Amino acid sequence: MNKQRSLAITLAVVALIGLGSVTVGDQLSPFTVKAQPASKEHTDESPDDHAQEQGHDEDSHDSEAKRPDTAPSEAAHEEEEGHIELTEEQVKAAGIELVTAAPRQMGSTVTFPGEIRFDEDRTAHVVPRVAGVVESVKVDLGQTVKKGQVLAVIASQQISDQRSELDAAQRRQELARLTLQREKKLWEDRISAEQDYQQARHAFQEADISLANARQKLSAIGASLKPSAGNRYELIAPFDATVVEKHLGIGEVVNEASNAFTLSDLSRVWATFGVAPKDLDKVVVGRPVMVSAPDLNARVEGRVGYVGSLLGEQTRAASVRVTLANPQGAWRPGLFVSIDVAAEQTFAAVSLPESALQTVEDKPSVFVRNAEGFEVLRVTVGRRDGGYVEIVQGLAAGTPVAAAGSFILKSELGKGSAEHAH
Predict the structure, then answer these.
(1) CATH value of 110-119+265-344 in 2.102.10.10, 2.30.30.90, 3.40.50.620, 2.40.30.170
(2) Domains of the chain: which residue ranges?
(3) Cβ-proximal residues to 51 (8 Å cutoff; 6+ apart), any chain
(4) Given this model, what pLDDT does residue 61 score?
(5) What is the structure's pLDDT at 416?
(6) For residue 376, what are the β-bridge partners?
(7) pLDDT given for residue 182 in this prediction
(8) What gap in Å lies between CA 332 and CA 32, rounded to an integer?
């Protein structure tokens, strides 16, 4: 009995040890467990796990399959980069004005570099007509003067001598006049001979001629005929002008060769340029021109007033000038300008004001109005004439385009491109 009990206990211990090893193996070696036949609970979870893994694989395949589909969306975004969405109220608030592309008669032009110069017909070099010493200078450089205004006063011995001669001539003439009256009375009363009367009349005529001669000498040099003027000689402005040069100082000795002042009427100036012989057939008197100054951002229309008959010895070009009105004084002599001469008039199928043209990515472009706002279009430009530009390609006639204020759209387009780059 004891042996049987001992054997039973031994078998029980062995069985417990065996069960313990299975449990420990299940915890420490999961790969072993997966190799064993799956239990019912494990079988229930495996389809889900397999489905998840299969779904994950399918998602991976779908993402890989859909990856090429992202290209159209990026392309669509690229297309949207040229669009600016604006409502009608926003367009008005931004001050954007619309124009319609339309046909127009335009002239082909030839451009020449030129320069603004004084109008030589309204420019004077004021010089003293007598020698003397400068007593006072009445004007400053750059000052505007009126016709007859005193520029400077010069004390001159020559004026003094001529004024003395005038005084003597006046007295001789007065004496001769009284003598003539007396001799005439005596001759009429038959007291004196007619010969005496004739001599008195002849003396009066000579005295009158001497007086007129003395007055003409003073008038010829521009001196005042008033006795109170003394030896003072006044330099007078010959017309309304601006003092552009001044070469006088108080106490300076001057003579007839001294260039005292240069005056010019700057309300009118010349735009001058040279024309080579090959272009002389395009530049004729009366042809319209456009004078522009990039430094001033200014343009003005004019007409060719003169074409030189001779070619310059050094430039081998004919001198051409255009007379320009300059009421505000903006066109200053010495300013370099560009002069466009209209050669011929031809028809342009599509044209726009130059204000509608903008440079986007180094290409000429316009902003076309659409239902959502504006769309930028690249265009090819041709001739320019009178503030208008010909559109050769890229735009149809009748298309509404932003003109004034289009630079605002360019700025907004630039902001959008910068944000997309970031």
Answers:
(1) 2.40.30.170
(2) 1-39, 83-107+346-421, 110-119+265-344, 124-263
(3) none
(4) 42
(5) 55
(6) 367
(7) 86
(8) 102
